[in-house]
Amino acid sequence: MESFLSAQLKLIPEMSELLQKRYRVLQTIQLSQGIGRRVLGEHLALTERDIRKELDTLRNQGLIEVTRGGAAITPDGTSVLLELKELVREWSGRLQLEQTLSKHLQIKEVIIVPGDVDGDSNSNLLLSQEAAKYLESILTDDKIIAVTGGSTIASISNYVQQTTRLKNLLFIAARGGIGKDVQLQANTIASLFANKMNGSYRTLYMPDRLSEEAYTTMTKEPFIQEMMDLYERTNIIIHGIGDALQMASRRSSSEEELNLLKEAGSVSEAFGYYFNEQGEVVHRIRTIGVQLNQLKHIEYLLAVAGGALKAKALLSYFKQAPSQTVLVTDEGAANEMMKIISQKN
After folding, report:
1. What Å distances lie between residue 299 and 46, 138, 163, 273, 324, CA to CA?
2. For residue 107, what pLDDT is reported?
3. What are the start and end residues of each CATH 3.40.50.1360 domain in the chain?
4. What burial letters (b/e) apply to 114-130, b meaning 16+ CB within 10 Å?
5. Mean pLDDT of residues grouped by 10 in the chain (345 residues)?
């Protein structure tokens, strides 16, 4: 079947472009049920005429329904998306890009979704959707899963399937709170995952940063020692990777600390550690949570981050990331990373 499709592509090369376009239209409709024609065109940068033509084709094939409330995918449409996923991944060039990038970053796997989250909200949803699928594929009974905060990690919980199949899952906050939005803090996100996946959760209601005296005192508390023991026994960590200065701003860092980060050449941030372009730790904040030296013992590390603007931060972090890491990212970040890599070679 695969060789037959390859032969078709050689004979009719334009078929690949058309297939990918219709796949994106159908995929966007799936992500945004009840989407209107104008909004759909804006998402995909297609003219109203193109959108009307594609919607008519998909509707005639029974893949979507179009009502006053907008376009919605049918069960047949969902099946087609699933069946074509790997083919579109290969024809789009993402499969080759994933393999090249994972080899360069020296990590287990890279999964790339279409688009760029910097300018396409659907790409953010696709990031979350792919991360949720990967998480479901590795989960078994009796696992401890630590999650960090942030909108991307929070969104993943929306796409994991409600289940009672798995037993004794424990979701824990990988760190204390960051920022003022409680909904995006690790404590809240851990509870969201637990509620969806028949698990329990443990919270860590601590400030994200502590003075030296407070840190020393808190680490002696029994409940903190219990959390640190859980981190040692954690099986899976789901985390983001941030731009150093953006993360410092979110933490309301002082002008002095911001200047320190700039002078040190800070590029990326993860787990409260700031890294320079070479992946070296140049600064860290005192925080109760997962520590960098614990990562190498974790069975599965799932990093989720996208957008061309984050390419430098991603390359910085992955200079020292454990080899068992799986990165879910988008074309914007992946292409920009390859551009930077080729410029340096």
Report:
1. 43, 10, 23, 21, 7
2. 97
3. 94-344
4. bbbbbebebbbbbbbbb
5. 58 75 89 85 86 93 91 93 87 91 97 90 88 95 94 92 91 75 82 94 76 76 87 96 91 87 95 95 87 93 97 97 97 96 84
Question: The domain 94-344: what is its CATH number?
Answer: 3.40.50.1360
Long-range contacts of 2-6, Cβ-Cβ distance < 8 Å, separation of 24 or more: 5/87
pLDDT at residue number 45:
82
Give residue 1's pLDDT.
Answer: 47
Predicted confidence at residue 150, as pLDDT, reads: 87
How many Å apart are CA 58 and CA 55, to the nearest integer?
5
Rounded to 5 degrees, φ, ψ at 73 are -80, 150
Say if CB 267 and CB 312 are below 8 A apart. Answer: yes
The CATH number, out of the four listed (3.20.10.10, 1.10.10.10, 1.10.287.3510, 2.120.10.30), of the domain defined by the range 2-87: 1.10.10.10
Which tokens sit at 83? 């069946």
Find the DSSP H helices in 12-74.
Answer: 14-31, 37-44, 48-60
The pair of three-digit structure tokens given for residue 99, joined into one six-digit string: 């393999």
